[in-house]
Structures are given as C-alpha cells and as structure tokens.
C-alpha cells in the first residue's frame, strides 16, 4: 500500500510539474512575468535539494526554459530583470553547482557579458547580470578563467568607467576583485584593465579601481611602469578618496625599480605650475616608508619644493599639506632643520615649530615670495651639509 501511495504521489508531482511547464510554454509575456514574480517570491534562498523537491526533481527543466527565453529576448529587454533574478535563484542555491554548469553549457557567460554592453538596457539590469557573473566566478578558478577568456575584463572595466550608478560600480568592483584573486593566468589582465579605468571621468570609479589595484599589488609584485602616470595624476585629484587610495599604492612603486622615476616626478609636481596636493602628502608618506627613500627625496630637492609649495598663496590646501610634509623632514634631519631655519628666518621658524599645520597662515605676501625664491643653489649644498653632520 505504501508503494502504491508513493507512486501515486510521485505521479501527482510529475503531473503538477508538466502542467507548470506547459503553462509557461504557452504563456505570453504578461503571464510569464507573473509566473516569474511568483517563482522569485516563493523560492529565493532555497537550496538545490529544496528546489528539486519543489519541481519534482525537474528544476533543471525550468532553468533551461529561463535561459532559452533570456537568449531570445535579452536584445529587446523583455522582463530582463525578473529573468536574471529567477536564474539567480538557481545559480545562488546552496550545493547547486550543477545549475551553474547547466547555465554555462548553453552559453550563459557570453549572454551575461553581452548584456553589460547593451546601451538600451537599464543599469539595474546590468547590475543583476554582474551579480550572476559573481556567483559563477566564486565557483572556482576555471570559472574565473572562462569569464576572462570571454573578454570579460574588458566588458567589466568599460562598465566601471562609464556607468552612472554607484551600486552597479560597486558590484563590478567586487567581481573584478574576485577575478584578480586566485586566477594567476589572468591576474595581469585584470590589473591592466583596472589601470585603464584610472583616466576616466568618474572619481568613484577611479577610487574603486585604485582600491582593487591595491588589494592585488602583493600578488602582482613588481609594479609595472604603466602605473606611474595615472597614479601621479590620481594623486592630484580634487577628491580626497581618490588621493587616499592613490597614496596607498605609492609605496609599491617606490620600493622597486621604478623608484628614481617616481620620486623625481613627485618632486617636480611640488613646484608651480603643478598644484598637486597629493604629491605633498605622498612625499611624506613615502619618506616615512624608509630612510633610504627619504634621503633620495632630499637629494632631489624635495625640501625646496615643499617650501615653494608653502609659499604658494593661491592654494591653501597645498600649503597645509606641504607644511605637514616639511615638518617630517625637519624633525628627522638636523641639516634640513638648519636649511629651513635659514630660509624662513627665526620668527617664522618658531611659528613653524609651534604649529606646522597653520604656520603658513602667518606668512605675508612678501615672506611667501621670499620663501618661494630663497632656495639653495643645488642639491650638492644639501649633500655638503649632510656630510658635515
């Protein structure tokens, strides 16, 4: 009797599944949209065994239909958001790797990546697509490789640079971060893609790209020379978040072969017409990294550059940052202290010692002019003083 009951129940469940699939197959757009609403509402967060129970072991049949409808309609944006969310119910199901494999077998990755480049689609649709790609990437290394092989990095970095929604940008950053980790074959491609985002016009995108580059730096090792120009440009950004992320990357450049180029470019940025507040902050960040870097900077006349910057009355943030950097060199190197005392005179130097952050506010135009012009003849003078120490 139990066997009969079991098979009656089974047949009933299969009949229910067939009826559901038939209803889907014959439904028009509005009815399908309604079916998707119900499906998302009642199945979100379910595991693979729970979904199979719900669909009498035939959940894959519905996933295949969803994927087929996506393939037919994503160019025309029919219900695309609900469709992607429904596919997401399968791809995010615990122990549901088989659903990911089934979706990939019918070209899922290429569809999702193509969605990112379609101008007529809303950014929230693209964001849903990125979330599905995250689920795929998090399944393992060969899945990350598949996304990269399908020109995924290019699609993602273009979206990061061009989209207007902060939420979409953040999802893209999460995915690029995932593709940049545990993916040795393609990590350099991800790094280069992020570098290409830096010149874009969105400060938020620049900040996210710099953050991800920073996270990847240790795995990459030697910082490529291509990092130098966009990084120095980011240091001069008007946006504090961008400058902060850029300054976190600087030590990676200064610690390696690129150091001479980086330091001399930084010092050059200190004096007008460069108005890079970031360069001032960076010189002190780098100097604190190592005594060797600090001494290289002194040889490159960083102290003079900082004093010129303090005297630049047109740009107060710059003056403040330069003062703070200068204070570090004065505190660490007695010969620098001597040099600065000579250049600014006793009274101003006292103000400087008392409060480096605000002493520039005590400068009158004549003193500022004096400061900007009364500099040592050459780095050799500095070297002489250093050896006399």
Automatic annotation (TrEMBL):
Gene3D superfamilies: Leucine-rich Repeat Variant. It holds the Pfam family DUF5578. It comes from the Eukaryota. This is ARMD1 protein. It comes from Callipepla squamata.
